[in-house]
Amino acid sequence: MGDGVSIRLMLADDHRMLREGLRRSMTEHGFDVVGEASDGAEAVDMAGELRPDVILMDVTMPELDGVEATRLVKAANPAVRVIMLTMHADQEVLAAAIRSGASGYLVKDCSTEEIADAIRSAVSGETTLSPALAASMLDEVRRLDAPHEAEEDRIVTKREEEVLQLIADGCSTPEVAERLYISQKTVKNHLASIYQKLDARDRTQAVLQAVRMGIVSLD
C-alpha cells in the first residue's frame, strides 16, 4: 500500500469546507476516501461500518471530541490507524491523543504532502508528530531529566521493553496484547510495573522516560 492506491481513508471534521479540501487533496495523492463524518459520534459509528485503514480525526468536534472518539474507535477496531489534526500544538492534548491510541498528531497548517506521508507511515505502523509537537515533547523530556537521574539504574525487563516500544509506536492495549500474544490483563500488569520502575504516572510519561533512558525510540 506504499503508493496510497489501496489505502482506505476516512475524514472526521465538523468543518465541511475543510473536509472537502482534504478529500480533494488526499484523492489527488492516491488515497481512497471512503467516508466523511461531521462529529465524533458519527466518526465512531462510521468507522465501525466502513473499517477504513486510516482516519484523519479533528481534535475539536461536537457530540464527541476527537480524542474520545479515537479511544472508542481503537477499542472497537484496533487495526484502524487514527491521525489527529489540530489547530494548535498542545502538549496536554498530545498526551491524551497518545493515550487514546492515535498513530499521528499533526497541526492543520502542515502541507498536504506531510499529511499524505503521515498516512503512509501510520499504515506501516509508524507514529508521526508535527515538528512543533516533536519539539514540545523534547522539551518535556528535558524537563523530566533532572528529577529522575537517580532512578536510571532501574532497568525494565525485556518483555516490559517490548510493551514500551509498542506503546511508543502508538499501539493500544488490545494491540499490544495481540502482537505479543498475551492477555490485556497481562499488558496492564506490565504497565503497572513499568510505571513503578520509571516513576511515571501514565503511558505518555513512561514513554518519555523510556526515550530519555534509551530504552525505546520514537523512530
UniProtKB/TrEMBL annotation:
<keyword id="KW-0597">Phosphoprotein</keyword>
<dbReference type="InterPro" id="IPR000792">
    <property type="entry name" value="Tscrpt_reg_LuxR_C"/>
</dbReference>
<dbReference type="Pfam" id="PF00196">
    <property type="entry name" value="GerE"/>
</dbReference>
<keyword id="KW-0238">DNA-binding</keyword>
<dbReference type="InterPro" id="IPR039420">
    <property type="entry name" value="WalR-like"/>
</dbReference>
<dbReference type="GO" id="GO:0006355">
    <property type="term" value="P:regulation of DNA-templated transcription"/>
</dbReference>
<protein>
    <submittedName>
        <fullName>Response regulator</fullName>
    </submittedName>
</protein>
<dbReference type="InterPro" id="IPR058245">
    <property type="entry name" value="NreC/VraR/RcsB-like_REC"/>
</dbReference>
<dbReference type="GO" id="GO:0003677">
    <property type="term" value="F:DNA binding"/>
</dbReference>
<dbReference type="GO" id="GO:0000160">
    <property type="term" value="P:phosphorelay signal transduction system"/>
</dbReference>
<dbReference type="InterPro" id="IPR001789">
    <property type="entry name" value="Sig_transdc_resp-reg_receiver"/>
</dbReference>
<feature type="modified residue" description="4-aspartylphosphate">
    <location>
        <position position="58"/>
    </location>
</feature>
<dbReference type="Pfam" id="PF00072">
    <property type="entry name" value="Response_reg"/>
</dbReference>
<feature type="domain" description="HTH luxR-type">
    <location>
        <begin position="149"/>
        <end position="214"/>
    </location>
</feature>
<dbReference type="InterPro" id="IPR016032">
    <property type="entry name" value="Sig_transdc_resp-reg_C-effctor"/>
</dbReference>
<feature type="domain" description="Response regulatory">
    <location>
        <begin position="8"/>
        <end position="123"/>
    </location>
</feature>
<dbReference type="InterPro" id="IPR011006">
    <property type="entry name" value="CheY-like_superfamily"/>
</dbReference>
